[in-house]
Amino acid sequence: MNRHRAPESGDLDPHPGDPISEIIAEFSEVFAFARTRWSHYAEEVHPDLRGVGVMVLQTILRKGPVTATGIGQMLDMDKSVVSRQVARLRDLELIVAEPAEDDRRVILLTPSDRAEKLLTEIRERNTIAYQERFAGWSPEELETLRAGLHRFNGTAPGLHADGPARRCAREHGGGAARSD
């Protein structure tokens, strides 16, 4: 009988030496750092904003104009969560919602000027934090990491559904992957 030893509470990696398991463990560390960073972002943007709201706002900033449906698909979020976040961001005057010219039923979301200014300032401050973490890395090492992450992210499932919301967002640069 072949028995596998269950990981003990002190074991951090159930498959030591397995590159995929080690990558997953490293991503877990990155995610923990990112969650903390999103919380700080949210507080800096507005005291009433939470991390998920900033995630939605960042997506609108990078991919907009985009529909709420497109955001939900890109972030793999439930429609109700996206709807609440969009309403909150509109209340805080951080996004603008306008009908698409080619299909007035479709609402396109873009960041407000205020949001763009705030996020640019925050991004500039946070760039320093990342520069400190990458101190000592060569340009080649940074490029290798960037290229690897870009390749990895490029294999993520894309938008599969079709409909007026996706078509309008895609035509306006918000529903399809960009190369930026």
UniProtKB/TrEMBL annotation:
It holds the Pfam family MarR_2. InterPro entries: ArsR-like_HTH (IPR011991), HTH_MarR-typ (IPR000835), MarR/SlyA-like (IPR039422). One of its GO terms (biological process) is response to stress. Coiled coil: none annotated. GO terms for molecular function: DNA-binding transcription factor activity. SMART domains: HTH_MARR (SM00347). Residues 163-180 have a biased composition (Basic and acidic residues). Residues 17-154 form the HTH marR-type domain. Residues 156-180 are annotated as: Disordered. This is HTH marR-type domain-containing protein.
